[in-house]
Amino acid sequence: MTTALSHQKAINKQASEFVVRLYSGELTAKEEERIICWCEENEFHQQAFDQALSLWDMSAELSPHVGWRQKLEKRFYHLRYLAASILVFMFSFMLFFNTTSIDTSVQPQLPSTYRTAIGEISSVGLPDGSTISLNTNTQINVEFNDNYRELWLQTGEAFFDIAKDPSRPFLIHTGTKTVRVVGTKFNIKLSQSGFDIAVAEGIVAVEESAKSGSNQQVEKSEGVFLEAGAIASFNNSNAIIAKKNEVTVEKAQSWRTGYLRFDDERLEKVIASFNRYRTKKIEIDDKLAHLRISGVFKLSDGDAILTALEATLPIEAQIDTDRIILLKK
Asked: Which DSSP string do the residues of 29-89 spell out, in sequence order?
């Protein structure tokens, strides 16, 4: 039986136990908080819990449907363990039926591709417990097998919160380089010449890319090791590394909170960052490129940067139908 299938069975079993406890009449406040946190960890936990609730509804003839969080709050103390035993039986039967009817030589199907549109930020929960946050205009391809967890960052930028699994390293392919981790947190942003990486937690290894696939072993090559607080830029032949730069690491992932932060940055770089989130691009006069700006800007208010620039710098914004041009006053 495949590792991924076993992991999904464990998730389903945990969801079933949570629902049984929910309707036992003896749920404590601490258990209630644990259930909520578990469901919010990733979409696979939530889906399994919803499925277990549906099975309960079919078996226990509950009164008119109420959301499960409301059920937690109202505490249905009148339900007894007889109904709980029915749920366990039905859920176990379904797990057995689904498991035995699947060819175990085939991995459970993951969506192989995840992407975001321009201006969109999204999070993806993977079956191993890892979470990938996708920045604007980003695409990743994912493939899990018995030996490795692999992801190809095709475009854009992503923050990786990788669940620890020493038996199956997580590989992120970025073209000519591969980032190898076991469990850590870090940000990768692709550029025209390579990529930038900022390590928030743990250790990552950046290696030369090797051929991979579900039926192949990915050979480990000599790599560059980066610890928490390190930032680095890689291209085909060079690497620039700065260690112990926690402030820059935090700034590199500020987009996850819905804000962009700049500290004395050149205006041309600031505008380039904002244009990643805009369909109506901002163009800048070459005479203004050297000007510097600091500030924190909310991504959902895309034109706030224009107001700030006109208020603090000798700049005026010329707004056309399909673009905005920044000119010197």
From this structure: HHHHHHHHHHHHH-HHHHHHHHHHHHHHHHHHT-SS---HHHHHHH--TT--HHHHHHHHH
Q: What is 258-328's CATH topology?
A: Phage tail protein beta-alpha-beta fold (3.55.50)
73 pLDDT exceeds 50? no
Token pair, residue 22, equals: 């929910």
pTM for the model stands at: 0.65
Class of domain 113-249: mainly beta
pLDDT in tens, 260-273: 988 899 999 999 99
Residue 303 has pLDDT above 90, yes or no: no
Domain 113-249 and domain 258-328 have a common topology: no
Is the pLDDT at 86 greater than 70? The verdict is: no
pLDDT score of 100 more than 70: no
Count the neighbouring beta carbons within 10 Å of the beta carbon of residue 121.
19
Answer yes or no: are the C-beta atoms of 252 and 187 closer than 8 Å: yes
d(CA 60, CA 82): 9
Q: Where are the domains of the chain?
A: 3-100, 113-249, 258-328
Q: What amino acid occupies position 309? A: L
Q: Of 236, 237, 234, 232, whose CA–CA distance to 248 is shortest?
A: 232
